[in-house]
Specification:
Elements lengths: L3 E3 L1 H9 L3 E8 L8 E7 L2 E7 L17 E2 L5 H10 L15
Length: 100
Amino acid sequence: MKYGLISLLPLQAARILGLMRTVEAVRLDEDSRPAWVLLARGRGFTRILRDEPLVSVGLLRTSDPTVPRPMRFLTRGAAEGYAQSVGLVAQQTTWSVKEA
């Protein structure tokens, strides 16, 4: 399926207003090498988190830095970790340990 992009700021606003249901890491289907993105499902929308590049164009090495693109991660764990770090999903609060 094809989904549009959403920036982090409106996504955070949707989370605060209670309009967001879930955020999950999904694999992109278009590339030969694996790339994971964050898919946000809310009330009335399903969007992929947009990558917002640096403001300084001299630091970018892309062919066209003005074209919107999804924020890509190399592994599912990295995508889920980023979602936790920006507050899109709940932080892990408990860990299991092996009793000696």
